[in-house]
DNA sequence: ATGAAAGCGCTAACAA
DNA sequence: TTGTTAGCGCTTTCAT
């Protein structure tokens, strides 16, 4: 009735449980004949090891947790894909945690993960509050950050250089002959994806001797609708501009929608460059020129780091991964 | 050094482990004074229960597994969102499994989930092969299917009526005055999302006395690029048509791209209706009219069913959830 | 080469 | 109301 245990196998093979364990783990100390007996018993009974019992004694569950502010976003799911892939490769399972808006469930989840004795955590796209840090620290498991970082604590992270990426996006526009460049920024209070991108934009303008005009900067929350509204605002209130740098692809797409609504043609009447390189960017028309962030790779890299830490084969180390501009069809070269 | 166990708490509170367990579970049989002592010890030591040990004895891990052919697709991540949400609400964690192209990793994952003693499985968007069924059956845990189904076995599923939804999409086009209607189908070998949608399309035409022309049907694999190609093929080879029904939003978006490339205006020159209602559909321009599938709700419902089954508070039951057409701006009313 | 036995941290009879 | 104890299924000394 109940699934067979190692005891049942031992009995069937006429050996002790210790021996069964030995052959199952390919240790030493058993004859070839015993091995056959055991393997046959395993086969006949359809025995499957119980990872829970194993975990209780090994103090390892071969499971990691990954936290996202919004699992269903395109952004998160790309990262998840990389995480899952790397984890699976190394023999780990991954528990997904959706921390929901403003990390409402973060603490709760940390608690759950702790009780479930997970071996490590990938923490993504959310600012690491002190409260979280304390909890994480209490758990005594390795943590790797993706798309966020902390200077306060020694926690490895994997992200792109947001400031530099924004700089280059703006610079790209300038090299294409644009001088009147607007920006649609994300929330300024976001210390990772907010401020640095605006700074990069400003710096690029400054380095080219272009005056920064705050009226050409509109703010959104990285989402589609906010991008659409920001663009409408810009179109209505800002000094004229020939190009826009949006701090996220979703906002860029929203901005394009707004432009279309006003009868503008892209890139003929207005150029636009995004940030992220989500799938949607190559699917819309015209395909969006944008800054590519290797999200899946970042998830993968973070997970590999995490597992190395778990198996303590490595020291804590962070990575700035490289971004690049994907030239598609939303930026026009000005004469 | 090591995290405190129930024993440590017992010692600190000067009671037995049984008593600690009792107050922690709010059972009966302890005085208020003991309760205070225990709670205080818990507090002081920062005790956290070990779910692994608990699972070993309860034979319940409060964890479910969910399998996707492609976690990073928009489609999967919406379902995942619903699953995660419902699971979290009921006190379950979810392990995500990406079965990869053609279910390469499905069997492997089923094995892992089994060893990890998960309490149930949500199986999505993939045809349930006999091999999978056998494995699932061996595991003796409840399973709920999402977006797929099986007639051969008694496994509850949650999905929309694909045939009817396709019928209605086509009918919608007809009611808007279209009579020359092409279709971009998914893979015909897909018994869930392939054939039924084509049948629904044909039936709708037939019911309106419109002859079905096989040359107006092109085939893709549900993905963007295949939709783009299918549309190019249709435009080049098919008899003229004024509207297209695409069996997935991604293909619809690809088809729109192809149309734009040919200088066609949507919906002025060509109407198009999609299927799925992914986020992208409302973000592109013009926003795509499509058949809404409540993916997150489906994930949620399936998970609730699953958990009910786990806690055997219910009998096996399937649900056909309702779809509806979201009218946006890609279908033009013909005079 | 093999087995006996002691736990891992917890729950749940069963006693007291 | 409280404690003792026997496991859950497994790994790992330590004997033999």
Describe the structure in your own words.
2 copies of one chain form a homodimer. With 335 residues, chain A is an alpha/beta fold. Chain A has 3 domains: 6-58, 434 Repressor (Amino-terminal Domain); 63-160 and 295-321, Response regulator (Rossmann fold), CATH 3.40.50.2300; 162-292, Rossmann fold. Helices cover 44% and strands 15% of the residues of chain A. The first copy, chain A, has 13 helices and 12 strands. In chain A, the strands form 2 sheets. The first copy, chain A, has a 6-stranded parallel beta sheet, with helices on both faces. The N and C termini of chain A lie far apart (79 Å). The model of chain A has no long low-confidence stretch (mean pLDDT 95). The interface between A and B is large, with 57 and 57 residues. The structure holds a DNA duplex (16 and 16 nucleotides). Chains A, B: It comes from Paenibacillus azoreducens. Chains A, B: InterPro entries: HTH_LacI (IPR000843), Lambda_DNA-bd_dom_sf (IPR010982), Peripla_BP/Lac1_sug-bd_dom (IPR001761), Peripla_BP_I (IPR028082). Chains A, B: Residues 4-58 form the HTH lacI-type domain. Chains A, B: Keywords: DNA-binding, Transcription, Transcription regulation.
Q: Distance N terminus to C terminus of chain A?
A: 79 Å
Q: Specify the CATH class of the largest domain in chain A.
A: Alpha Beta
Q: Report the portion of residues of chain A in β strands.
A: 15-25%
What is the CATH architecture assignment of the largest domain in chain A?
Answer: 3-Layer(aba) Sandwich
CATH topology-level fold name of the largest domain in chain A: Rossmann fold
Q: Report the oligomer.
A: homodimer
Biggest sheet record of chain A:
6 strands, parallel
